[in-house]
Amino acid sequence: MTRAALVAEYRKLVTTRLWWILLAVMAAYMALMAAGLGWSLSQGDVSTGTGDELVLTPDDVVRSVYTVAVSLGYVFPLLVGALAFSAEFRHKTITPTLLAEPSRTRVLLAKLGANGAVGLLFGAVGTLAAVVAGGGVLAAIGEETFLGSAATWRSIGLSVLALALWALLGTALGSVMTNQVAVIVVVLAFTQFVEPIARVVLSMTSWGSRVAAFLPGAAGEAVSGGSLYSATGMTSLLSWWQGLLVLLVYVVVLSAIGRVTTLRRDIT
Amino acid sequence: MSQAPPPTPGPSTAGPPAQHTDGVVRVEHLTKTFGSGPGAVHAVHDLSFEVRPGRVTGFLGPNGAGKTTTLRMLLGLVAPTSGTATIGGRRYDQIERPAHVVGAALEAASFHPGRTARDHLRVYAPQVGVPDSRADEVLALVGLAEVAKRRVGGFSLGMRQRLALATTLLGDPPVLLLDEPANGLDPEGIAWLRGLLRALAREGRTVLVSSHVLSEVEQTVDDVVIIARGQLVHASSLPDLARLARPRVSVVSPDAAALDALVAAHGWTVGASGRDGDAASYELLDVSAAQVGAAAFGGRVELHRLAGQDVGLEDLFLQLTAAPAQQTSAEAPAPGPGPAPVPSSTAPQTDAPAGGER
Ligand SMILES: Nc1ncnc2c1ncn2[C@@H]1O[C@H](COP(=O)(O)OP(=O)(O)OP(=O)(O)O)[C@@H](O)[C@H]1O
Ligand SMILES: [Mg+2]
């Protein structure tokens, strides 16, 4: 039964065009960003932002190229997840969905499971695009790629994991906000403006900087280790497992809210 | 779009119907109020009826009568304010693999426009518990085989209805609940649907179809459950309903003995009769007011009321659903040109099961 629900949710995702359009855009965007970042490294000055006192080891810098998807591309798995519920409500397919599986908790869990799996795919493709493009450019301009180092591959693996968590977070958010336009606006506004600005503003004080580390974007970057923001010294990050826990807490809290609000309502 | 072959819905993959349920759909004192306070909508109020297997039951009522709300409560999509709605004695969410037991299509046919017809069915197949090949079987059954790979976004209303029906048939369920399935079908499609529903009922399935016009389902249904303003106004077999539509005369005389003798002498069919002291009242069937009046005049029987009602089935339906649901007696004439009262024999019988005549 639960397996069937997972298969059904997975099929719902892959039988529409949205997911692979987003996946293709993500891959292209991540490749471009990683290539650009890799090339800018060869220009010597990587300390954009806060100045010359910054001390970065080269492998830190290279890691931020490979995990650029966690810093700039998490909006893609987030969106795919966030649209899982709103698409059902928009097209009223929530009715046949609940007819096939009357347990609303099980529907929510199946959606989390299936979107988590698709999130892994997004994570793998987005990260791979960054590694191939970034590593290619680094190699072409004669820089060290650090692809022989275990630490690099660990970051790459954690980048995939972080992006999958974003898909879970999106699914949980979607269970709370079922209006498609609203959820898209919230996702874009939060990821593109609210959190980046909040992180800059909060990092001006030391306590604020600690708070900022708990924002979902910062927690996601913490999971993969190196990141653009931390590489430029703008914020401090949690450790990778703390970041993972913080993201999971967001997922659990939002899912619980969705379960007792949206998913308790009458479907008419 | 080609027409489907003669309906033979049983798939090779699923067993015979009625294996998980006795197929009886039962609604008991069901009430649903949307919202609260002054803005509350009393969509369904103390509704009770029963739907039997082996028959097609028409679930009828004007727009906003509460048909869809009732079906959604049966399916666990809307939580009742009070009362129960069960299928085979169980609430929908208590049924194991419910799509295998109940096939339901609700009014707003719900599809993702970007999905193909086959993919739409393949999405639900795992939970229904049937192999993917069943999708092609039901598509053929509803006449959509040729458009299986087309996106649903480009489907006509009639094609969507057929796909909705295909979805309900995926699990070869013994119980079918269909909300306005004829909506958007062309005459040929309606005839086809009629044949399909009749065939499904003949196989022993429970088939409930809602509609807001009686004439649409008149040729299809065995039983009717008629609701208005969320309340039951009539539940019976179709012949019993049709009997109400026969021409009838309401007659009242202060001289009971004389009227009794008159009725007996002419051999009129008595629909209902009543007595109040010396006075007698009769509901006479298959006779006109003119005939009764002439006979009474000839027999010197004093009449205090002589009213003929000549109603067709559709008129009857309008009468039943237009009048505020109340326990009117045959003797109480409706004031003015308003709808005639429901004869006492058909007044709301809240827990009368449909299909008394078997
Ligand atoms: N979610 C809701 N919130 C408030 N009122 C509702 C809701 N859903 C239905 N209603 C009201 O409940 C009443 C019954 O509606 P319902 O859809 O069950 O009628 P229906 O018999 O299916 O009508 P139709 O023939 O038009 O489909 C209507 O007054 C409707 O406005
Ligand atoms: Mg309706």
Give a structural overview.
The complex is a heterodimer of chains A (about 270) and B (about 350). Chain A is an all-alpha fold. Chain A has one domain. Chain A has helices at about 1-15, 20-40, 60-65, 70, 75-90, 95-100, 105-140, 150-175, 180-200, 205-210, 215-225, 230, 240-260. In chain A, α9 (about 180-200) packs antiparallel against α10 (about 205-210). The longest helix of chain A has about 35 residues, at about 105-140. Chain B is α/β, with parallel strands linked by helices and about 350 residues long. Chain B folds into 2 domains: about 25-240, P-loop containing nucleotide triphosphate hydrolases (Rossmann fold, 3-Layer(aba) Sandwich); about 250-310, Alpha-Beta Plaits, CATH 3.30.70. Helices cover about 30% and strands about 25% of the residues of chain B. Chain B contains 10 helices and 13 strands. Chain B has helices spanning about 65-75, 115-130, 135-140, 155-170, 185-200, 215, 240-245, 255-265, 290-300, 315-320; strands spanning about 25-35, 40-50, 55-60, 80-85, 100-105, 175-180, 205-210, 225-230, 230-235, 250-255, 270-275, 280-285, 305-310. In chain B, the strands form 3 sheets. A 6-stranded mixed sheet of chain B has the order 5-6-7-3-8-9, with helices on both faces. A 4-stranded antiparallel sheet of chain B has the order 11-12-10-13, with helices on one face. Chain B has a 3-stranded antiparallel sheet with strand order 2-1-4, covered by helices on one side. In chain B, α2 crosses α3 (about 135-140). Chain B is elongated, with a radius of gyration of 24 Å. The interface between A and B is medium-sized, with 28 and 36 residues. Magnesium ion (MG) binds near residues 67 and 107 of chain B.
